[in-house]
């Protein structure tokens, strides 16, 4: 059973999502929060598999809530998905950098919402190739984010190549075809890169790739 927490300041939206998700045999909504602070409290209390958190809420916004959840080692298994009205924008970029595993827009189709929850629960990033390309195009040209975490030098040449392909939204199978390696080998490279970079999931690899310059200007175009 996939256990889900919903955090949104609009009760109508929470109720709609709850009705949709609770109708599935393998999904259960275990809690609701009207603001970011309460969302963090309930995540710590209930330990859901997936926390769907609105990016803009009172008391504490979704970005800060995501940052607190991601920074807590005891909550490493909780997958945060950001909910937004706006699609790809500054909020989404900051949320991904804070530790979110992906994002959803509020006008998502019901079947896509259910599929997204299952995808997040598996630990896969909710970032399509089109989304990653737009993220790169809109944000990679900005001044680099100052970070004291591991740099690209901790990766092997092949791992840097693989992370760059992840940043373009390629799956392990697609990376394997591109590099003429097995899907298992591609998965191993991705996993090792995540460990070395202390990345929670593939979404974090995407953020790292363009902030570290692993995606060239030519590739961005």
TrEMBL record:
One of its GO terms (biological process) is phosphorelay signal transduction system. This is DNA-binding NarL/FixJ family response regulator. Pfam families: GerE (PF00196), Response_reg (PF00072). It comes from Phytomonospora endophytica. Residues 148-213 form the HTH luxR-type domain. The keyword Transcription regulation applies. GO terms for molecular function: DNA binding. PROSITE patterns: HTH_LUXR_2 (PS50043), RESPONSE_REGULATORY (PS50110).
């Amino acid at each position: 059973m996939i256990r889900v927490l919903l955090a949104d300041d609009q009760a109508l939206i929470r109720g709609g999502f709850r009705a949709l998700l609770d109708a599935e045999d393998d999904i259960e909504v275990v809690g609701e929060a009207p603001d970011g602070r309460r969302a963090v409290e309930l995540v710590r209390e209930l330990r859901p598999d997936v926390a769907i958190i609105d990016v803009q809420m009172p008391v504490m916004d979704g970005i800060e809530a995501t940052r607190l959840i991601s920074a807590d080692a005891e909550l490493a298994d909780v997958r945060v998905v950001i909910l937004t009205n706006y699609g790809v924008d500054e909020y989404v970029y900051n949320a991904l950098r804070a530790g979110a595993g992906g994002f959803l827009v509020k006008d998502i189709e019901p079947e896509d919402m259910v599929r997204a929850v299952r995808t997040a629960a598996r630990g896969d990033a909710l970032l399509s190739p089109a989304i990653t390309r737009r993220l790169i195009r809109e944000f990679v040209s900005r001044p680099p984010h100052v970070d004291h975490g591991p740099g690209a030098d901790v990766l092997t040449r092949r791992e840097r190549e693989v992370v760059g392909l992840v940043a373009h939204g390629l799956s392990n199978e697609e990376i394997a075809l591109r590099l003429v390696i097995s899907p298992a080998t591609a998965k191993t490279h991705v996993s090792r890169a995540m460990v070395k970079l202390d990345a929670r999931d593939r979404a974090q690899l995407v953020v790292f790739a363009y902030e570290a310059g692993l995606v060239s200007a030519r590739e961005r175009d």
